[in-house]
Write a structure and sequence with these properties.
This protein is an all-alpha fold. It has three helices and no strands.
């Protein structure tokens, strides 16, 4: 079986995966979950790390809005991610 990253051919695939994971965890009333994504294979497929990061954010943002999450918490998450990229 190929690694999950091999199945992510487009940024939308990544956003859909994040939304699905978030939806499933919310259905189980999970208060917190950590996930790790390695950006290494994506540039070879024409997706630079910033595109993948944007797709991860897009998937999380759609779910957060649907769940009524705090926009301030989302802004903090984006600020941390932006700082880590520098």
């Amino acid at each position: 079986m190929p690694p999950a990253g091999a199945l992510l051919a487009e940024p939308q695939d990544t956003a859909d995966l994040v939304r699905g994971i978030a939806r499933d965890l919310a259905a189980r009333n999970a208060g917190y979950a950590g996930a790790q994504a390695a950006p290494y294979p994506f540039p070879r497929r024409g997706m630079p790390p910033a595109v993948i990061t944007g797709a991860l954010d897009a998937g999380a943002e759609v779910h957060a809005v649907a769940e009524g999450a705090s926009p301030a918490a989302d802004a903090r998450r984006r600020a941390v991610r932006d700082a880590e990229r520098r």
